[in-house]
Specification:
There is one protein chain. The protein has about 160 residues and is of the alpha/beta class. The chain is about 35% helix and about 15% strand. It has a domain at about 70-160: Vaccinia Virus protein VP39 (Rossmann fold). It is built from six helices and five strands. The strands form two sheets. The chain has a three-stranded parallel β-sheet, with helices on one face. Strands 1-2 form a two-stranded parallel ribbon. The radius of gyration is 18 Å and the shape is globular. The mean pLDDT is about 85.
Length: about 160
């Protein structure tokens, strides 16, 4: 039986200025946008894995960079949004704070971070049996404290193993 399920319900909502877009919309802008090229969509990625860079899809070559979230190779306030899914927790706590500050530096208040967490002792035990790479993990309250310490003002959510 089919169900209506919003798979994006946990993602942050965009804060688009709908009126500004409507006022700026022209036939030329529509034609360029429908090419779905560089002027329509610019995305950049960062990966710590040389393997990932060497085996990425051809269309992302030049947009995927080798690096670590502790020192993001982009200028201040250079992105409309930053998304970090299940990566920050692979750093130790101090590096997590630094990475969160870096994310905030690139897109103040316009980021989404998802990290490993657990809501109770049973989930924590299961997580600790399962985890391979996370160096820092905590209950949601502990993560929220880390976000505050970093001055991170974006949105967030948890990956919880059940």
């Amino acid at each position: 039986m089919q169900q209506e399920i919003n798979l994006l319900s946990k993602l942050p909502r965009g804060k688009r200025n709908v009126n500004a877009r409507a006022e700026a919309k022209t036939d030329e802008i529509i034609a360029i946008s429908r090419q779905y090229g560089e002027l329509y969509f610019e995305a950049f990625g960062l990966d710590i894995s040389e393997y990932a860079l060497m085996h990425c899809e051809p269309e992302v070559v030049g947009r995927l960079h080798l690096g670590n979230a502790v020192k993001l190779p982009f200028p201040d306030n250079s992105f409309k949004a930053v998304i970090s899914l299940n990566t920050v927790h692979n750093l130790d706590r101090g590096e997590c704070i630094t990475a969160l500050r870096e994310i905030e530096r690139l897109a103040p208040g316009r980021a989404f971070v998802q990290v490993d967490s657990y809501r109770n002792a049973e989930q924590k035990a299961l997580f600790e049996e399962w985890v391979l790479t996370a160096k820092f993990h905590d209950y949601p309250d502990g993560w929220v404290a880390a976000f505050r310490e970093a001055g991170y003002t974006g949105d967030y959510y948890w990956t919880i193993i059940e």
